[in-house]
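Section 4.2 – Deliverable D4.2 (structural model, holo form)

The reporting period included a commitment to supply a predicted holo structure for the target in complex with 2-(butylsulfanyl)adenosine. Inputs used:
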Amino acid sequence: MVSNITKTYSTSEIRALKAKYDKLLSEVNLHDRLYYRENNPRISDFEYDCLKSEVERLQEILAVYSVEIEDTAIGDDSNSGFQSFAHLSPMMSLSNTYSREELFQFSNHLGATLGPRKFSYVIEPKIDGIAINLIYKKGKIFRALTRGNGVVGDDVSANIKTIRDLPREIENYAEAIEIRGEVYMDKQTFIEINKTREEQGLELFANPRNLAAGTLKTLNIDEVAERDLKLITYAIGHCSEKIVNLQSEVLELLKNFGFASQEKYWLAEDIEGAWKCVEELNETRHIFPYWTDGAVLKVNELQLYGILGATAKSPRWAIAYKFAPERATTKIKNIVLQVGRTGIITPVADLESIQLSGTNVSRATLHNADEISKKDIRIGDYVTVEKAGEIIPAIVAVDSTKRNADSIPFIFPRTCPSCGSQLIQLPGEVAWRCQNLCCLPQIQRRLEHFVSRAAMDIDGLGTVIIEKLMAVKKLNNIADIYRLTFNDLECLEKFGTKSALKILSNIDGSKNRPLWRLLHGFGILGIGEQTAKILASHFHSLDNLIAATPEELEQLNGIGMKLSSAIVAFFREQHNGNTLNDLRMLGIIPGDRHLEISQNQNSKFYGKNFVLTGTLSSMTRQEAIEKIEHLGGNVANTISGRVNILIAGENCGSKLEKAQSLGLEIWNETDLLENLNGSVA
Ligand code: IVH
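Output (structure tokens):
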């Protein structure tokens, strides 16, 4: 981005540089098309940025030698199927860098251009989403446009209106105002969608940015609503009135208008201070609900923007500093085939252990057979590993030059590695499945899912104990959990009386869980926590649900034909029917009184997300969760920006600090009790 041409080039060198430029430009154009139009990039952002900066370097050299070249355009995300309209003021892009040095050079340029004028910085998270331009007229939402080619964008108003926290009306400050921001999908939603797809044997979405972009460009509005897109705003484009003087005031104004705001932003007087904020963002961004791929540094004083101006593509008053993905090289020791709860066979690379973004990584999912053959991943290969979306270790490249001469491609088996049944691939699916419901790892995964925190929450009954109980035939299905005796548990190797009693008491405690937990625990294909909650609060009892027709089910929000058939098929299946009868006899099927989630929207709990930390003296953790859920609240395990309230009991640890750093509301036990008493279900 900053000119650095010191060398002199001969005519033949320039010719060679021009040829290289043309080649790289056509690559950039290809990747632009894949990224902006098809939402299906083939290379990582980091690789794309490196390619683009090399093109820009060549462009600069060729310009000095007056070579005529085709210019790189700003990425164009427009799609057919949508009407296009002009933005009131153009939507530019940001220049970006991965280098601290270039960030300081950016600051030097500002200083040189602005001379004696004083300026400061705002540092904001760079949200990895899709740019959106919201036009409000006389305070009412008028139109929502994608960036398109920067001058004209696609009208995605109908889709944008599915976003729950989009203010339909804002204070009527101006005849027309453009509010700019980012549409994104939060990490939790993305992970849940991919989890469901994995269970259904469908190809996984590569990252939340592409999924959000694809969703925003969908013509099926119900599909958009189901995907639960979110919005954060950070700028004002055209505005018929001058309303603020500072970027920090823009951010506050947008918050007052009712827009969801950035998790956090920082102010700094100089570039050293700004750099500290960038570093702080890099440390805290992992707990944000959205993916951030960098920091945006903006000059805070808006009146200086006119003086600083812009290049053809980006303003000179801002820059994006991007966080380079942390990568490491390691060797694949083995490729292990895991049998999942729904019979899907997932290949996993067993790696020579490495440190990546602060954790030890020794395994990486290879997703499916297609992924292995596409990347030609083999046992013994040296590979580059990166954490996709900051969390999940993924293999991004294979170094085939380091292969042994006797290396052979990995052959995905056609029989189940556990029970030997023939594997099948259903139409439209990439996954290979074992269809034998009695295949032991499948039974084990189903049991693990049933007792998990997200379902029946039976603490202590972990993977190892389940495996041991299965080996001695004490656990064959979920009903058996409620038949376990003290003797069954105590007989297990290295198992004490105290642990056995604790587990039995936890199993007993789980008999009163709300219906949605039981439904979720059944592991019906495609029924995650949210859908289980929708079903439970609509049908109130398991018997009502079992009696529901597909048509009745499809009336519910988020339930289409595929899910309704999965539900009906699950309850019709004879073995499942027998297990349900057993559960009934064992006193597990909850009656109506547990099921209803309060519809009292005035309750302090309704629709809010809570996290509990520390110990409570007046009730158990589980009792607190049930009370909150009964009043319409949700309880999560980890702190993120999606959380509204942290309930801090005695001896709480790092969650309290995180919540404080995010400015979340914090209740102590007395606050909780007062609010519970004040909330009528
Ligand atoms: S300000 C002139 N602030 O990043 C453009 N953009 O790579 C002014 N983005 O096109 C944009 N977070 O879509 C701004 N806090 C933030 C942002 C942000 C994400 C996006 C935006 C922009 C792209 C540039």
